[in-house]
Specification:
This protein is an alpha/beta fold. The chain has one domain: Alpha-Beta Complex (Spore Coat Polysaccharide Biosynthesis Protein SpsA, Chain A). About 30% of the residues lie in helices and about 20% in strands. The chain contains 10 helices and 11 strands. Strands 1, 4, 5, 6, 7, 8, 9, 10 and 11 form a 9-stranded mixed β-sheet that branches. Strands 2-3 form a two-stranded antiparallel sheet. Helix 3 crosses helix 6. The longest helix is centred in the middle third of the chain and has 13 residues. It is globular, with a radius of gyration of 18 Å.
């Protein structure tokens, strides 16, 4: 089988409603987008990394630290649409969607997401999960849960507790990690799919893909430091916490 080229793409919008200019906010002396980019460059299975942005200020900042970036339209309705436009401009077979607001993303997790597509030529999408340990996360709608079949394929994603414990039976509950890996052709097809009722009800785009019959493999990550790698910066308080973590973990 021919070698497959893998690209990491980081969508980065300037106009965040809760934290405008979020990708350019400073964390431990570096912009958030530079921190995300640097972590991605450590991922062994990525052939190259590119930022997909709608703002020249972000483009200039990325090029200033030696990174690659492409401009995308301002009016995309979703991150997947922005990702698809960027993917259409790069030479790659597999696309990794890396969240631009997770400054400490674990490079090993990127490899965990990519490897299933390298191993199985019939697989079109993969993502990750890990066990929920904190009781408060079980009922937090901001923590997306996932259940899979016996082969690891997603059955459903939900903001509610999943599965619901109707009987007192020991079972695990897993949080979905929002790192997606797609075949390029699949990603371009996803951007053209019409929304579905489950997606609208739960406000989870991956439910659109399931309802349209796509298979999503969900692997369990072996990353043990979710407090660091899973931190998403959405508010000023999150930004302050990221700055503290950078100092605490010696990442400045």
């Amino acid at each position: 089988m021919a070698t497959q080229k893998v690209a990491g793409i980081i969508p980065a919008r300037y106009g965040s409603s809760r934290l405008p200019g979020k990708p350019l906010k400073m964390i431990g002396g570096k912009t958030m987008i530079e921190r995300v980019y640097a972590r991605c460059m450590e991922a062994e299975l990525l052939d190259f990394v590119v930022v997909a942005t709608d703002d020249t200020r972000i483009l200039d900042a990325v090029e200033a630290f030696g990174g690659k970036a492409v401009m995308t339209k301002v009016d995309h309705l979703s991150g997947t649409d922005r990702l698809a436009e960027a993917a259409s401009k790069v030479d790659a077979d597999i696309i990794v969607n890396i969240q631009g607001d997770q400054p400490f993303v674990d490079p090993v997790m990127i490899g965990e997401g990519v490897q299933p597509l390298l191993d199985d030529p019939t697989l079109e999408i993969s993502t990750l999960m890990y066990p929920i340990e904190r009781a408060e996360d079980l009922t937090d709608p901001g923590v997306v849960k996932v259940v899979t079949d016996l082969r690891g394929n997603a059955l459903y994603f939900s903001r509610s507790i999943l599965p619901y414990p109707r009987e007192d039976i020991a079972h695990g509950v897993y949080e979905h990690v929002g790192l997606y890996v797609y075949r390029k052709a699949t990603l371009l097809r996803l951007a053209a799919l019409p929304p579905t009722i489950l997606e609208r009800v739960e406000s989870l785009e991956q439910l659109r893909w399931l309802q349209h019959g796509l298979r999503i493999y969900v692997g369990e990550t072996h990353c043990t430091d979710q407090a660091l790698s899973g931190l998403s910066v959405d508010t000023a308080a999150d930004l302050a916490r990221a700055d503290e973590l950078a100092v605490e973990r010696g990442l400045v």
